[in-house]
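Self-study notes.
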Amino acid sequence: SVEKDVPVPSPTKVDLTCKLDENSNLKNPEVTWKKGSEIIPHISKTPNSWTIQLTISDKYHLGSYTCILKGEKEVSAVFHLQVPKIEGKEKPVITYEGDKAVMVCKTDYNAKTWTWHMTNGTELVPIVKILHADKFQIMSPSAGVSRLEILKLTKEDGGVYWCEAEFDLGTSKTRFELRVLSIAGPLKPFIAIVTEVVILVTAIVLYEVYSKRKQKGREKEFDQIEQL
């Protein structure tokens, strides 16, 4: 089985072709095109390829179209017609309190609009730039890119954010995880090391002071014995 994603941002006509390699052992197969249980007749046929033409006018025409070839064995190819995917960041965005976080969404196609959401429990709350101008900055340098900046980060800003692009045939979104660390966090190991060094140096100094006092005490005692 072979699968392929076919991005469709707006209404259009799409030709899907199922083609056998010339060296395939599957000879004169029975070919069926389907979407779910619905059979779709192919409009053209050659000895090794079969094509259907689709008119994608709304989101209900999107979905998975399967080409099934039956002979001595059965093989298939699946075409997933869907709105374009948008790229984000798989790994968490990690930054510190007081800094700013930057999240960028991209697509190879022109989106009609971009929307950013933050998660409040189980709900998605739209980020409205006008209402949160001192906290959020949203920029779209092109129709295929959207950028969110979160300013003056606090611990409460950590969480899950969503970027959503709207196309003529539907929407596509991706997830970001933001982690806000305390500035003191990375310093803890350093502080622990410094503390150990200070304790060690203090112990050495006290030992030297004690040793010197003890030595002076012995010298004084020796002088008194000599005088006697």
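Second protein, same conventions, sequence then structure:
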Amino acid sequence: PAGGASLRLCSTRVAQEGINKPVIDRIIRVDHAGEYGANRIYAGQMAVLGRSSVGPIIQQMWNQEKDHLKKFNELMVAYRVRPTVLLPFWNVAGFVLGAGSALLGRKGAMACTVAVEESISEHYNNQIRTLVEEDPEKYKELLQVIKQFRDDEQEHHDIGLEHDAEATPAYSVLKTAIQLGCKAAIFLSERI
């Protein structure tokens, strides 16, 4: 540059002053992992049911999850958060859960959707409470993202119910097992 001035490239990083870095790291890491896992679940469901009557509905939900993952990829860079080391495991586990539930048919896939999205909506609500207690103004943008994604997940939950998720054989057992898995995934992805 002329005059010896240095050229500084624009950064997508967020100012780190005043933020509770450990809390933000955990939130962004686990949400990234969750959205990654959700993408893999829907990929598994589409592999089995993509050409069925419910395929377009699954694809619509998957498209929203792709947008969520894209945003959390951006937030990981902006806040300089490392991803969980468990991503390779969530890659396989998510796909197997999606394909496995879809092998039970349309209702099985929707039961999986209800179980996962109910867990994630509850998880996002807990994060919203945490950020509001910390400082709602300081975390305003992150709160907006999480609230929007929580609403999307709740919509997916409701779509699952509208498409007979509860009519799946052993629905309550399946739902409970999937939700226990979600709780374990959340716990591990926040920390590892």
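Instructor comment on the second fold: The longest helix spans residues 21-49.
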